[in-house]
Amino acid sequence: MAELILNPKVMKKVQQEVRQVAKGKTKVHETDLYKLEYMKLVIKEALRLHPPAPLLIPRVTTSTCKIMDYEIKENTRVLINATAIGTDPKYWENPLTFIPERFMNKDIDYKGQSCEFLPFGAGRRGCPGINFSVPLVELAIANLLFHYDWTLPHGMKPKDLDMEEALGLTMHKKIPLCLSASYYYDL
What residues does heme bind to (predicted)? Predict the structure, then answer.
């Protein structure tokens, strides 16, 4: 939601999509999610910039290996920085800019098959809750966008929004997001 507030054109585009798909309904249903193609791009982009766990679960090497010029000994604890990977300019053009369209017509997905995008880790130690959490987030965001128009509180400007993230096991904003919601009546 914070990235959408900072990017009103994206907010408008994703709201139009959600409201078109759910037109005539009282809410967005799980069966509608597959139609929300742009919203899926928005969520991927948000996860690229703000992965749920900035450092993936530590791994221990099973044998000595060499990565670039570094030799990593057997039984070394290794941390994977998902935030650094998701914002690496080697893989992403304008890596710190919120651009959902960068995922358009690409096979990059959450499942850990693309090493430049690992918000849930990869392989057998990837997040076991991915199949539950992604549809849940999609459904929640879709319904928030369907039912409400969102703005910053009176007098607050986008430049006043602090996007700093707090330290911790999971990623969250250091200062909670506060928005004003206006009920959208044209359902």
Answer: 127
